Amino acid sequence: MEDKIAAIESQLPDLGPPSSNYIHAVRTGNLLFLAGKAVLVKGRVGEDYTTEQAYAHARDIGMILLAAIKRATGSLHKVRQIVKVNGMVNATHDFAEHSEVINGCSDLFIEVFGDRGRHARSCFGVASIPMNLIIEIEAIVEVEDE
User: Fold this and answer.
1) Are 72 and 24 in contact (CB under 8 A)?
2) Do the beta carbons of residue 5 and residue 59 sit within 8 Å?
3) Where are any strands of DSSP class E within 11-117?
4) Do the Cβ atoms of 45 and 89 come closer than 8 Å?
């Protein structure tokens, strides 16, 4: 697993400044609360994108969340547990595969951290996401003491 973490750290995207009046992560005790992240892909799942395409975008968002963890802690090796993931999918009213979409992020976390990547999760469809983006995902992570 240590090799997997090192390999993924070298592939993380650059994390620019937040797009609005917030910060990427807030730590309280051993919990790290990550702000919602998205990729700049506009539209609706079930209309403009398939479940499989949205899954790939959710995986990309997982990489952004990992970049936020690394920025906040200095290393993904400090992750004790991915605690909770919340996924919002901008989807048509009859779309019903929200879980399959957010699995893109969940599967990535499990690939990287093994059992420490298994987490509680909520996912649901929404009428809109800022800038008409297709997915937004946030997470809560337990990290090691500094």
Assistant:
1) yes
2) no
3) 25-28, 31-37, 79-90
4) yes
Identity at 97, one-letter amino acid code: E
Q: Model-level pTM greater than 0.85?
A: yes
**Scanning the structure block, which residue is given the tokens 């650059």?**
14
Main-chain dihedrals φ then ψ at residue 50, nearest 5 degrees: -85, 170
Rounded Cα–Cα distance for residues 87 and 76 (Å): 21
Q: Which domains does the chain have, with CATH numbers?
A: 2-12+24-143 (3.30.1330.40)
Q: Taking 90 as the threshold, does the pLDDT of residue 1 lie above it?
A: no
Q: Write out pLDDT tens, residues 47-104.
A: 999 999 999 999 999 999 999 999 999 999 999 999 999 999 999 999 999 999 999 9
